[in-house]
Amino acid sequence: MLLYDNPTAPHPRIVRLFLAEKQIEVPRQEINLTKRENEQPWFLALNPLGRVPVLVLDDGTAIAETLAICRYFEYERPEPPLFGRDAREQALVSMWQRRAELEIARPIMFAFRHTHPWGADREPRQVPEWGEICRARALKRLDWFDIELGKRPWLAGEIPSVADFTLLSGLDFGRVIGIKVDAERWPRLARWHASMRQRPSAEA
Ligand SMILES: N[C@@H](CCC(=O)N[C@@H](CS)C(=O)NCC(=O)O)C(=O)O
What we know:
This protein has helices at 10-22, 41-46, 66-76, 87-115, 128-148, 162-173, 187-198; strands at 2-5, 28-30, 54-56, 62-64. It is α+β, with helices and mostly antiparallel strands. Strands 2-1-3-4 form a four-stranded mixed beta sheet, covered by helices on one side. Helix 1 (10-22) links the parallel strand 1 and strand 2 (28-30). Helix 1 (10-22) runs parallel beside helix 3 (66-76) and helix 4 (87-115) runs antiparallel to helix 5. Bound molecules: glutathione.
């Protein structure tokens, strides 16, 4: 088994957080995105989209997509449950994971790709105005997440889940476009962030 990884990109970090919480060790190989290793034919054969993470199983099966990889490990090692413990929790984790990804992490990623020099020759056309719109949208959604995080300890309920790792990775990546966890504006988000930072997985 081999996990194709990258130390600074947000999606691979979700998998590392997930593995750390489950105390699973997996051999990893870094894909250098700056040197465009992800665009090499051998890597595109594993994931035609040219994105990390990718998990290759011993039988050669290549699993791309962060959530698919996390699902694989959830089945292999159910404890601690990170996708919810029953039907209700699983539905809530799924709901909040998608919201964290679609409403926070993705707009932050678009803002980065459309305003940062890194994205200049990776996007078909870099549109800084679109990047700014995405940045503003993520900030507005964080106001909402702050309210939600005042209602329960973790994003989807009483136990930490893959929804929290998705939010943490997206939010921390926000640093690259100047988004910081502002405790004045988002006190409950800051409390949650501090709790996440105290977990043994935080350095993953
Ligand atoms: N939908 C994919 C997205 C993966 C993704 O966007 N990976 C980024 C790093 S966070 C990547 O490999 N980007 C390379 C590039 O765009 O050149 C997933 O959930 O794993």
